[in-house]
Amino acid sequence: MIRAVDVFCGIGGLTYGLRLAGLDVVLGLDSDASCRYAYEANNAGAAFLAADVRDVRFADFESRYSKSRINALVGCAPCQPFSSHTRRNGTSEDDCELVDEFARLVGEGTPDLVSMENVPGLAKHQSFSDLLKLLTSLDYHVDHGVLDFHEFGVPQHRRRLVLVASRKGTVALPKPESESGKVSDFIAGLNPIGAGEICPEDPAHATLPLSPINLERMRQSLPGGTWKDWNEALVSPCHNRAHYPAPYGRMRWDAPAPTITTQFCYYSTGRFGHPEQDRTISVREAALLQTFPADYQLFDPDTSLPISKLARHVGNAVPVRIAELIGRSLNGAVANA
Ligand SMILES: C[S@@+](CC[C@H](N)C(=O)[O-])C[C@H]1O[C@@H](n2cnc3c(N)ncnc32)[C@H](O)[C@@H]1O
Asked: How confident is the model at residue 261 (pLDDT cuts 50, 70, 90)?
C-alpha cells in the first residue's frame, strides 16, 4: 500500500479521493487551521498539521512513512497566482514560491511517487520547468498535462494541470473514462432554500443573501443566459462592456456547471445562480459539484465558519473524483514496477 503525505491539504478533497483509491494518507499539512475539522472528520487516521510549508522540512514528517511501504508526496499549491482571472486583475505572475517549496520537499526526500495539480498557466512558468528538471535529474518517470475534468465525470468545466511522477514503475495520467456529468445529476434532490437561508437539515446547504436589485436580477435570469435577459433598468453600465457577459449567470440543469471557484457564493462573480431557485448555489451544492460525497462534513457544527470561508475551502479543493483517478495512476506505477 502507498503511504502519502498531502501538502496544502485544505479540507481534504485530494486526500479523500486518494483514500478511495486505496492510498494510506497519513498526514495533511496546511497553513489554514480552519481546514482542520473537515480534514480530520472525513479522513479518519490522517492527521492535520497546521504549518507554513516554508517552515517544514521533509525530515519533519519522514517518520510518518513506514520503511516497508511505498511513499508518496502530493500537493496542490494555491493556484490563484497563475489563473488568468488574477492575472487580469494585476496579481503577480511570478508568485510561484509555494510550488518551489513543494519542489524543495521533493528534492529533500525523493519520495517514490509525486503528484501535483494546479491551474494550466503554471505549465508555462519557470517554477514548473524547474520542477520537471528536478524530477528528471532524480530519475523520476513523469507524465503531465492539462486535463478537462469534465471528461472524467466531474459536472463542471474545470481545466487543470496535473502531474504524476514515479521512481518505481512508469506512471501515466488518468484517461477520460466516464460520461460527462451535468448539474441535475448532482444537486437536483436538495431541499429548496432561498437567498440568505440555511437548511435546517444540513447547515452547509446555505447561501448568502442577495441585495434587492440582485434578487430581481436573479429572478429575471434564464438558465444558461446572461444579463442581456434582464429589463434594461436592471443593467448597469459595466454590464454593457463587451468583456462582461459571464457574471450574474444562472446554471442549466442539463449542462456542466462553470468552474466552481472560491467565489461561487457571490452572484456577481460568475454563473453561480441556481438553475431554478432565486439564489446562488449553496456551499453543499458546490461541494457536490466538486464531487465530494453528500455527507462530507464541511465545518465543526460547534464553531461554524462564514460562508465566504467555506466557499474558499470548497472552491480550492481538488475534485474527489479526480483525486481518486490520480490515486489509481499512482497505484498503476507501483504495479508496473
Ligand atoms: C488549492 S488549495 C489545496 C486544496 C486541497 N488539496 C484539497 O483538495 O482540498 C491550497 C491550500 O494551500 C494552503 N496554503 C497557502 N499557503 C500555504 C503555506 N504557505 N503553507 C501551507 N499551506 C498553504 C491554503 O490554505 C489552501 O488550503
From this structure: very high
CATH classification number, 2-180+318-336, choose in 3.60.15.10, 3.40.50.150, 3.40.50.300, 2.30.40.10:
3.40.50.150
Q: Which of 30, 116, 119, 122 has the most ligand 1 atoms within 8 A of CB, as the residue to mutate? A: 30
For 8, 275, 309, 330, 331, the CA distances from 336, given in Å and listed in that order, are 28, 45, 41, 10, 9
Known active-site residue 238: no
Domain 183-316 architecture: Alpha-Beta Complex (3.90)
Give the model confidence (pLDDT) of 104-141 as tens digits.
999 999 999 999 999 999 999 999 999 999 999 999 99
Going by alpha carbons, the residue nearest to atom 10 of ligand 1 is 78
Give pTM, 2 decimals.
0.94
* Ligand 1 atom closest to residue 17's alpha carbon, by position in its atom list: 8
DSSP 222-291: PBT--GGGS-GGG--GGGGSTT--SSS-B--TTSPBPP--TTTT-GGGSS-B-SSSSSBPPHHHHHHHTT
* Residue 333 contacts residue 113 (beta carbons within 8 Å): yes
Distance CA 287, CA 142 (A): 30
